[in-house]
Design a protein that fits this description.
Blueprint: H1 6-14, E1 24-27, H2 40-54, E2 59-64, H3 73-85, E3 89-95, H4 99-108, E4 113-119, H5 131-138, E5 141-145, H6 173-176, H7 182-198, H8 202-211, E6 216-220, H9 226-233, H10 242-251
Parallel strand pairs: 1-2, 2-3, 3-4, 4-5, 5-6
Helix pairs in contact: 1-2, 2-3, 4-5, 7-8, 7-10
InterPro entries: AKR_Detox_Biosynth, NAD(P)_OxRdtase_dom_sf, NADP_OxRdtase_dom
GO cellular component, one term: cytosol
Domain NADP-dependent oxidoreductase: 1-252
Length: 265
């Protein structure tokens, strides 16, 4: 889906001689006013297209991109079950579901849903209200997307918008601008301060915080260049002292109100 399928083609080329690499992909997003399509026809057609681009006979973890209010969940799950029964998919996941939507899908599925791909970072902790509690109860792992807060947690926007950044483009500016507010600036400052004190990079700190959160199984990185990818890969083993975790928890804390999970704690 991303870059008109070129991202899958690149992964397929890179992994052509790496059959043991586990691959995750997803389907269900469309470029129409509808925005999402989790119908049986669309999902299975998209799956076959992904397999062709990836040069694979199967996808290890296949996510439904978003809840589709126009398609009964039974139809969506039927398509996913067919994909597994046909051997084209090993395991099923969902993406961008609310807590009740995740529960509805998990309880109605013939096969376990093992992954929920959700945005999660120091700048976006909304899934802690209901999705993470639901995932824990259901035994579903969280695959955190945008753990660097859409790139803002790298610190590159602290003093303005770099001309070569995604925020400077018409296509991505609306995606990143919501995280360039006063609250985000305070969190980014805290991340950069922690990084300086620990001899780490802001990327190290941001990824270490997200990776250590309960129920998080993995993180999805959207590097734009090879250089960015190398920096991220060098950060995978970074760890934070407990007091730094606590400080970052505090500065990035979200408001909880009735009946959010933990509202009265």
């Amino acid at each position: 889906m991303y870059s008109d399928g070129v991202s899958e083609e690149n992964v397929g080329e890179f992994c052509r001689e790496q059959p043991d690499v586990l691959i995750s992909s997803k389907a269900g997003s469309v470029r129409t006013n509808r925005r999402r399509d989790a119908s049986r026809s669309h999902l299975l057609t998209a799956l076959d297209a992904s397999l062709r681009r990836l040069r694979r006979t199967h996808i290890d973890v296949w996510h439904v991109h978003a809840w589709d209010p126009y398609t009964p969940i039974e139809e969506t799950l039927s398509a996913a079950e067919h994909a597994i029964d046909s051997g084209k998919v090993r395991y099923l996941g969902i993406s961008n579901y609310s807590g009740w939507q995740l529960t509805s899908a998990a309880l109605g599925s013939k096969y376990p849903i093992i992954s929920a791909q959700m945005e999660y970072s120091l700048l976006q902790r909304g899934i802690e209200r209901e999705v993470i509690p639901a995932a824990e109860d259901l035994g579903v792992g969280i695959m955190a997307w945008s753990p660097l807060g859409r790139g803002v947690l790298t610190g590159k926007y602290r003093h303005g918008t770099p001309a070569d950044s995604r925020a400077a483009t018409s296509h991505f500016s609306a995606f990143i601008t919501p995280y360039l507010n006063d609250r985000s600036r305070a969190i980014v400052d805290a991340v950069c301060t922690a990084a300086e004190g620990l001899g780490l990079t802001p990327i190290d700190v941001a990824l270490a915080w997200t990776s250590a959160r309960r129920q998080v199984s993995s993180a999805v990185i959207g590097a734009r260049t090879a250089a960015q990818l190398r920096v991220v890969l060098n950060s995978v083993n970074a760890q934070l002292p407990p007091e730094i975790h606590e400080a970052l928890d505090e500065v990035s804390a979200i408001e909880r109100g009735y009946p959010d999970f933990g509202w009265n704690q």
